[in-house]
Amino acid sequence: MGLPSPDQNHQVLIMIKVRILSLLAAVLAVCATVHAEEQERHNALSSAMEHFTWGADVGGSVDMSGHDMSSIDISANFGYKSDILRLLGAGASLNLMVSNSCRSFPFYAIIRTSFTRQPSLFFVEARAGASINYLQNNISQTGLYLSGGVGINLATGRTFRSHLILSYSFFDRGYITYQEQDYSVPDLHYVGVKIGISF
After folding, report:
1. Which residues contact 167 (CB under 8 A, 6 or more apart)?
2. d(CA 27, CA 25)
3. CB-hemisphere CA count at 13 Å for 18?
4. How far, in Å, CA of 172 to CA of 196, rounded?
5. Distance CA 167, CA 163 (A)
6. Among 190, 196, 199, 194, residue whose Cα is nearest residue 73
């Protein structure tokens, strides 16, 4: 049995090189496909997060209905944002009365908008929902909660925005039962000022 000729050795080497190059091309194609899918998922997540916003406000409200129920208010919210909508979402608030042990916990849908795609100094805010109200003598009841206000943009950065809001709020407190008697509880009307930040 003779040794392979130089031509046969050359052909074998060419075949090995072709197979190695084919294998490398297949690996590169798989890597490129996986990278493209990862990039697409990353872009979709980034796009979704660009429209997510959250924030918080702190302030105070004066009881305009004369029932000595002025309060310190803390609220947090989250939702969707776009060029026109600063916020479309949901939120919750804690309202602690200054002169007594009463407190309210409003839960609401919220919208903030300046009605324009251009940067604007002013915007409006509206809230609608329900409030769990804890009254004196450990009595609680739930009623309608409505609020509307006008806001002024303060500092604005690449990832945050601060604001000041002047608002009116309405708390429907309806009726309560205490010691087997039904009582009508007066509604509350507030004027408030709050400062906040959103991200």
Report:
1. 125, 147, 148, 149, 150, 190, 191, 192, 193, 194
2. 5
3. 6
4. 25
5. 13
6. 194
Q: CA 99 to CA 101: how far, in whole Å?
A: 7
Per-residue pLDDT of the chain (199 residues; tens, 9 = 90+): 455 566 666 676 677 777 777 777 777 777 777 777 777 776 665 565 688 999 999 999 999 998 899 999 999 999 999 889 899 999 999 999 999 989 999 999 999 999 988 888 999 999 999 999 998 878 888 999 999 999 999 988 888 999 999 999 999 987 777 777 777 788 999 999 999 999 9
Asked whether the whole model's pTM tops 0.85, one would answer no
| 18 phi, psi to nearest 5 deg | -60, -45
